[in-house]
Specification:
Strand order of the largest sheet: 3-2-1-4-5-7-6
Number of strands: 7
Structural class: alpha/beta
Strand content: 15-25%
Oligomer: single chain
Largest sheet: 7 strands, mixed
């Protein structure tokens, strides 16, 4: 079954996505530097870019950089004076991402900040950082609720929130799961369901990355 999913992803890429040497080079650099191959797929990356364009995003926040593959996709939606801030725990991953962003010609509009994302987000809130138009979260799942809470303080009405890996191969429905990632994802659903300011849905996906999904939301007043 997964072979069929991957074949469909290949069909989508072949028919709808243009070649991009910067994205290809980023994946090659990630592999050469020992980063795990857990980036979004190409089709998912293009989807994120389209979300950012639909939102007219001028400021984007990403939680979880890895080697900057999804960062490059998102930054491709920004105007020349746009800004993307991406948060990465691992210094090695952050250095690879900075090099990939420079290679892609995006270093002027993308800033990689290292350290625990919860700490960086608290510092951004404390500093009164300007609101973001789109927030993409693809980091440790046990911290999902903390990331949501921070995102709500760093956005404005109309901002878009996107959380990755929310289906967990179906395990999200298992209330008895002891898996911290499943528990963190279920807590995210509960927190969003309880917050009247957030209008949200979640979509299952299959493809190169297996069976998973995205949670999509708009911040209300």
């Amino acid at each position: 079954m997964m072979q069929d999913w991957a074949a469909v992803d290949g069909y989508i890429v072949d028919h709808l996505l243009d070649e991009d040497s910067a994205l290809d080079a980023a994946l090659e650099a990630n592999a050469a530097n020992g980063l795990p191959a857990i980036d979004v797929s190409a089709a998912q990356g293009k989807m994120l870019q389209l979300f950012a364009r639909m939102a007219g995003a001028r400021r984007i926040l990403e939680v979880g950089t890895l080697g900057g593959y999804s960062t490059i996709w998102l930054a491709g939606a920004l105007p020349e004076d746009g800004k993307l801030v991406t948060l990465e725990l691992e210094p090695h991953h952050a250095e690879v991402a900075r090099a990939n962003l420079a290679q892609a010609g995006l270093a002027d509009r993308c800033e990689v900040r290292t350290g625990p994302a919860v700490d960086n987000l608290a510092a951004m809130i404390g500093a009164g950082e300007a609101p973001f138009d789109l927030v993409f979260v693809d980091a440790d799942k046990p911290s999902n609720v903390a990331y949501l809470q921070a995102a709500m303080r760093l956005t404005r009405p109309g901002s878009v929130l996107v959380f990755d890996n929310v289906v967990r191969s179906g395990a999200v429905t298992d209330a008895a799961s002891a898996d911290p990632s499943v528990r963190g994802t279920r807590a995210l659903f509960d927190a969003i369901a309880a917050d009247p300011r957030i209008d949200a849905t979640a979509i299952q996906t299959v493809g190169d990355k297996g069976w998973d999904g995205f949670l999509l939301a708009i911040v209300g007043a």
